[in-house]
Amino acid sequence: MTSRELVKRTLNFENRDGRAPRDLWTLPWAEMNHGEMLHKIQREYESDFVCAPELLGTRTVEEGDPYTPGTYRDQWGCIFQNIHPGIIGEVKEPIIKGEDWEDVEAAHIPVEQLTFDRDAVNAFCRSTDKYVFSGVCPRPFEQLQFIRGTENLYMDLMDMPENMEKFLGKMHAFYCELLEEWGKTDVDALRIMDDWGSQNTLLINPEMWKKIFRPMYKDYIDIAKRHNKAMFMHSDGNTLQIIPELIDLGLDALNAQIFCIGVEKLEPYAGKMTFWGEIDRQHLLVEGTRQDIFEAVKKVKETLWRDGGCVAQCEFGPGANPENVYEVFRAWDEVLK
Fold first, then answer.
1. Within a domain: 182
2. CATH number at residue 38
3. Cβ-contact 253, 275 below 8 angstroms
4. Domain count of the fold of the chain
5. Boundaries of domain holding 280
6. pLDDT for 56-108, tens place per residue?
7. Which member of 35, 49, 212, 291 has the greatest number of CB atoms within 10 A?
8. Dihedral through CA 66, CA 69, CA 72, CA 74, nearest 10?
9. Is position 72 within any domain?
10. Is the CA virtual torsion 112, 114, 119, 124 positive or negative?
């Protein structure tokens, strides 16, 4: 069975005799600090997922390296300050500072991303039997925070300035067009992301989320379905309050901090959506024993596996014990024997 077939069966809850698909996320930090162990994991537990290349015909305003100390400018013009090598930095100053968004032109909508090489994407898809993600990942809520600053954005969402409303409409239209174009390619899935949770709850009132952002996600997921693609989403924090909404919208897979949420609280949603990882990177991957990791994987499998519905995913990031990352993938093979 190819990786592509394995992932599709898992998403459709038809994986009755295969292992769980594997997906290791890494930051350059892992290569810099634990390169030998990282390569061992990648050799022995090869990922079933890969991203298509985004080769642009026109350059964006992006400058610098997001993982190198110094400054980095993203495709929207936001400036990140980077301190630690191998880890992306933070935006310290918003580029839209006016109370009424009168300086909205400071934000650059990266239409250059629409010039990506479709032929290169399709050739890449034909060259691999892995499950292929699109090379872009719209993130409206987070990008608005980078542009405006988190505190300012929260205030704006309470009483949205007219100029912000217009900008949000343009941002959403751009993201829709971008997903439409990627949907026309041969990739297997489209992706979106936004970190919506704090440690304990949603970052904004759930009713506000439903009013402003749910319709946007509906459009994105509908685009994927129209092009016969799956839609995958990442969202950190405790996102329990919106998981039923995402399922209702038809989201295929969610990468969530399921241990922050509480694995047992997700059992009612088993078989309704694939949980695209993860194993707790706040505590278990950092300070847990190998037995702790095995028991965690076993708990996820027993709670959420329904002939599919789970991906063996974790992140090899700052603080993670390399042996624990290795154990995640070994344990998934063990619990599904």
1. yes
2. 3.20.20.210
3. yes
4. 1
5. 3-55+115-138+178-335
6. 999 999 999 999 999 999 999 999 999 999 999 999 999 999 999 999 999 99
7. 49
8. 20
9. no
10. positive
